[in-house]
Amino acid sequence: MALLEANDVTIQFGGLTAVADFNLSIDAHRLFGLIGPNGAGKTTIFNMLTGVYRPTRGEILVDGQSIIHNRPCEIAALGVTRTFQNIRLFKELTVLDNVKIGGHIHYTYSGTSAVLHNHRFRDAEDAAEEEAIDLLRIFGLHMRADDEAHNLPYGDQRRLEIARALAAKPKLLLLDEPAAGLNTGETLELMDKIHEIRDRFGVAILLIEHNMELVMGICERIFVLNFGKTIAQGTPQEVRTNPVVIEAYLGEAVEA
Question: What is the pLDDT of residue 250?
Fold first, then answer.
């Protein structure tokens, strides 16, 4: 059974079809890419996979369970978490608290324990803080755990958002343009980090990205969208040399 399946997923806004008959199957521990021009429907697909939008028709399954009527928090609890194209941190909270919030669905204490600050609450909070610090250490952010998130440089805010998504202990991590705004060195570091995340946490990863060096360098399979429709899919080499993809998106420079 695939970790995630999308079968003939379509979404319409009024008379506009934003995504048409999209199909995707991701097994555990795989690393897939989703590319296409701006407005092709990539983020709309992420929004459907995470419950922000409900498809007009089609089916989305996580571990064989339909999620099209689930709320985003319920889908996160099933193991699908994401980052966003435009960074969405709790910028007035600390770096540490941002990560702890990501893991809140796994907290084991009750509301009463939280009010009373009893041993169950304290033990759970101590464990959550330790896990959050471990995640921050992976991204080199542990020394800034007490800083407010808005004081981090842009690249570190990107890393923090990934750490927060990982705090929910996902089976599938969706990364929406993780290299946006990063320089060449930061992008190369991110490529290594994505591989490390996949291997260390055993997660599957689906990413949207315009940086073709990153996509072609790390993805095992790539899906190409244009005007809401899948125009190609395959290995990086197959996509790189596909004439339809070159004409619609990549351009002649990538063909070589």
Answer: 65
Instruction: Tell me the pLDDT band of 1, cut-offs 50, 70 and 90.
Output: confident
Q: How far apart (Å, rounded) are the C-alpha atoms in residues 184 and 179?
A: 9
Residues in the chain: 256
Angle between helices 184-201 and 154-167 (to 10 degrees): 10
User: Does the pLDDT of residue 26 top 80, yes or no?
Assistant: yes
Structure tokens at 28: 């555990």
Confidence (pLDDT) at 20 = 96
Contact status, residue 227 vs residue 195, Cβ threshold 8 Å: no
Among residues 91, 116, 112, 115, the alpha carbon closest in space to that of 101 is found at 91
CATH number of 1-79+170-256: 3.40.50.300
Residue 206 pairs in a beta bridge with 32, 174
Structure tokens at 199: 């291997």
Token readout for 104 is 């809140």
d(CA 25, CA 22): 10
Q: What is the DSSP letter of 48?
A: H
Q: What are the tens digits of pLDDT across the range 158-194?
A: 999 999 999 999 999 999 999 998 899 999 999 999 9
Q: Residue ranges per domain, the chain? A: 1-79+170-256, 91-169
Which residues, 6 or more positions from 168, have their beta carbon under 8 angstroms from its beta carbon?
76, 81, 102, 103, 105, 106
Could you give the 3-state DSSP secondary structure of residue 230? strand
